């Protein structure tokens, strides 16, 4: 069977809403990551066959095929095409799957899988809220409404359903959120992100220019009391902004190559794609999909959860990784070992290859072999990717 390899993986450090990265146009920010992948791999830019880019809010500055626009803003020649992908929060993880499938099919040798989201400049929900406010209709057509009469699919409703189903308390969710910040703080102190982050120049409030190299959302010295004092998002609920993922600006990407491309480049691969799959689930509870999707993936891969050394399970909300660990009997000490979206941020369309970048570098840092990545996605879906560090 043909193989797909990752030879370069990079991301920007996350930027808080209206924070350090908010001055960057998302197209230019994405181009910075594309350029870094070219530089780190040493590839001739003209050899790139395609750029696949995940992005959720494809409107405004992220409209009109953000992938192609990022190519035109980068050092890649005009001959390199690009296309944009929306599988909600799994958009760039799906970009990685499509890239791997392209090189495994033999139709391409060098594909960049990437993602970008500027949640400061293109706020979440803009693609659905803007047309509805202008009387242009809504994504839930008559047939969906008949099948799901409860109304709009809401992640905030879904996550409270998960909390009730699995019996978590707010105290448990807040404790997990604290752990995410503590792990991220420890990783930053140990320079664990140094090799994965692309420094980008930013302007500070006082006009000074500096390089942005540290994830801006990490709460250094976070306490349980501070997290517990954050207002709940819904009355009588359990979810607050402190135990949910942070709004974030960022870009990320990986360079995927075939065996033929690997020989041509003459570089050592970082990882091999071992398995990739995607599964649909209940769109109402929505965020539970990583659990059956992981079971499905492990069965297809012929592996047991204990054979996986590290897991990246997107921290959209604290109960997601908690329920995933419990239901799969996974070791909590192997999950998001350098922190997750609660502390590092969740730049929607960029999170897929962002998590993959962190997973690859964590496997290398801790001298581990297999890693698994999964994330909940709008509409009740989940991608699962298993890699082998080489």
Automatic annotation (TrEMBL):
<feature type="domain" description="Thiolase N-terminal">
    <location>
        <begin position="5"/>
        <end position="259"/>
    </location>
</feature>
<dbReference type="InterPro" id="IPR020613">
    <property type="entry name" value="Thiolase_CS"/>
</dbReference>
<protein>
    <submittedName>
        <fullName>Acetyl-CoA C-acyltransferase</fullName>
        <ecNumber>2.3.1.16</ecNumber>
    </submittedName>
</protein>
<feature type="domain" description="Thiolase C-terminal">
    <location>
        <begin position="268"/>
        <end position="389"/>
    </location>
</feature>
<dbReference type="InterPro" id="IPR016039">
    <property type="entry name" value="Thiolase-like"/>
</dbReference>
<comment type="similarity">
    <text>Belongs to the thiolase-like superfamily. Thiolase family.</text>
</comment>
<keyword id="KW-0808">Transferase</keyword>
<feature type="active site" description="Proton acceptor">
    <location>
        <position position="346"/>
    </location>
</feature>
<feature type="active site" description="Proton acceptor">
    <location>
        <position position="376"/>
    </location>
</feature>
<dbReference type="Pfam" id="PF02803">
    <property type="entry name" value="Thiolase_C"/>
</dbReference>
<dbReference type="InterPro" id="IPR020617">
    <property type="entry name" value="Thiolase_C"/>
</dbReference>
<keyword id="KW-0012">Acyltransferase</keyword>
<feature type="active site" description="Acyl-thioester intermediate">
    <location>
        <position position="89"/>
    </location>
</feature>
<dbReference type="InterPro" id="IPR020616">
    <property type="entry name" value="Thiolase_N"/>
</dbReference>
<dbReference type="Pfam" id="PF00108">
    <property type="entry name" value="Thiolase_N"/>
</dbReference>
<dbReference type="InterPro" id="IPR002155">
    <property type="entry name" value="Thiolase"/>
</dbReference>
<dbReference type="GO" id="GO:0003988">
    <property type="term" value="F:acetyl-CoA C-acyltransferase activity"/>
</dbReference>
């Amino acid at each position: 069977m043909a193989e797909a390899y990752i030879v370069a993986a990079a991301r920007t450090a996350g930027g808080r809403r209206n924070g350090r990265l908010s001055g960057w146009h998302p197209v230019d920010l994405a181009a910075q990551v594309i350029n870094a992948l070219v530089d780190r791999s040493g590839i001739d830019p003209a050899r790139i066959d395609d750029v696949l880019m995940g992005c959720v809010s494809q409107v405004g500055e992220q409209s009109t095929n953000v992938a192609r626009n990022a190519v035109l803003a980068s050092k890649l020649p005009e001959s390199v095409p690009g296309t944009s992908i929306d599988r909600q929060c799994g958009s760039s993880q799906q970009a990685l799957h499509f890239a791997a499938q392209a090189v495994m099919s033999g139709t391409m040798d060098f594909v960049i899988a990437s993602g970008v989201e500027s949640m400061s400049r293109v706020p979440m929900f803009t693609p659905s809220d803007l047309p509805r406010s202008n009387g242009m209709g809504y994504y839930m057509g008559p047939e969906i409404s008949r099948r799901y009469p409860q109304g709009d699919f809401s992640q905030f409703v879904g996550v409270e359903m998960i909390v009730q189903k699995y019996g978590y308390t707010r105290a448990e969710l807040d404790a997990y959120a604290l752990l995410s910040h503590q792990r991220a703080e420890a990783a930053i102190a140990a320079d664990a992100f140094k090799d994965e982050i692309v420094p980008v120049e930013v302007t500070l409030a006082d006009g000074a220019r500096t390089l942005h190299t540290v994830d801006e959302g990490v709460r250094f010295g976070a306490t349980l009391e501070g997290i517990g004092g954050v207002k709940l998002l819904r009355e009588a609920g359990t979810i607050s902004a402190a135990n949910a993922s942070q709004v974030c600006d960022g870009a990320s990407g990986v360079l995927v190559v075939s065996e033929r491309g690997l020989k041509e480049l003459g570089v050592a691969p970082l990882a091999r794609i071992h398995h990739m799959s995607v599964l649909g689930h209940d769109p109402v509870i929505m965020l539970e999909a990583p659990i059956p999707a992981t079971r499905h993936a492990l069965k297809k891969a012929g592996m047991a959860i204990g054979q996986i050394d590290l897991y990246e399970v997107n921290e959209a909300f604290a109960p997601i990784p908690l329920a995933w660990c419990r239901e799969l009997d996974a070791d909590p000490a192997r999950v998001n070992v350098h922190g997750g979206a609660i502390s590092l941020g969740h730049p929607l369309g960029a999170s897929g290859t962002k998590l993959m970048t962190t997973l690859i570098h964590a496997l290398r840092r801790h001298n581990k072999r297999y890693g698994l990545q999964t994330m909940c996605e709008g509409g009740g879906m989940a991608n699962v990717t298993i890699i082998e560090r080489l």
